[in-house]
Amino acid sequence: METSTFVYDGDCAFCTQCADFIARRIPTGARVVPWQFADLDALGLTVAECEEAVQWVGSDGVRAAGPDAIAKLLAGSGPVWRVAGAGLRFPLVRVAAWPVYRWVARNRHRLPGGTAACSLPQEARERLYGPAGRPTTEA
Questions:
Q1: Which residues constitute the domain of residue 110?
Q2: Which of 17, 83, 84, 95 could form a disulfide with 113 if both were Cys (CB 3.0 to 4.6 A apart)?
Q3: Regarding beta strands 55-57 and 5-8, do their DSSP bridges make them parallel or antiparallel, or are they unpaired?
Q4: Based on the structure, what is the number of domains in the chain?
Q5: What secondary structure letter does DSSP report for 7?
Q6: 3-state class percentages of the chain: helix first, strand second, coil last, to nearest 5
Q7: What are the residues facing 32 on neighbouring strands?
């Protein structure tokens, strides 16, 4: 792998808005990709891992999840963002970051840009909306 990869849930509108923010505002050499379009096998990731949290797979093979993945993404970005990434790695902040991340993940359907589909597990989303995110005709 030559480029680091940040993987997010492309079926979640809130997550997609966050990824769009990264693309617009955070200068990073990492590839930012929804897990639904990523080669998870090549990245060494599972669907379960990607449903649980954002994932980072560094070009050096180092992996991280959740706020640790966000810290890795920010560490390879512009100067201001590197400071934010370093802050996320500070031990006391890191201890608090996981509970905050889990709360956001559980409530992402209630956050700006979130939709009801954001709160469903992948299996339920596919059953309701199909693999391409469009509603199915089955009830």
A1: 5-129
A2: 17
A3: antiparallel
A4: 1
A5: E
A6: 55, 10, 35
A7: 6
Could you tell me how many residues make up the chain? Answer: 139
* Token duo for residue 5: 């990869």
Q: What pLDDT score was predicted for residue 104?
A: 83
- Token output for 122: 């992948």
| Residue 32 resides in a domain | yes
What value does the mean pLDDT of the chain take? Answer: 83
Please state, in angstroms and rounded to a whole number, the distance separating the CA atoms of residues 46 and 22: 23
In this predicted structure, what is the pLDDT of residue 61? Answer: 92
Structural domain includes residue 138:
no
pLDDT digits (tens, 9 = 90+) for 53-70: 999 999 999 999 999 999
Of 45, 55, 58, 41, whose CA–CA distance to 4 is shortest? 58
Q: In degrees, to the nearest 5, what angle opens at C-alpha 54 toward C-alphas 5 and 63?
A: 55
What global pTM score does this model have? 0.78
Instruction: Write the pLDDT tens digit of every residue in 71-118.
Output: 999 998 988 899 989 988 988 999 899 999 888 888 877 776 655 655
Residue 5, helix vs strand vs coil: strand
Would residue 60 count as lying in a domain? yes
Whether residue 29 is contained in a domain is answered as yes
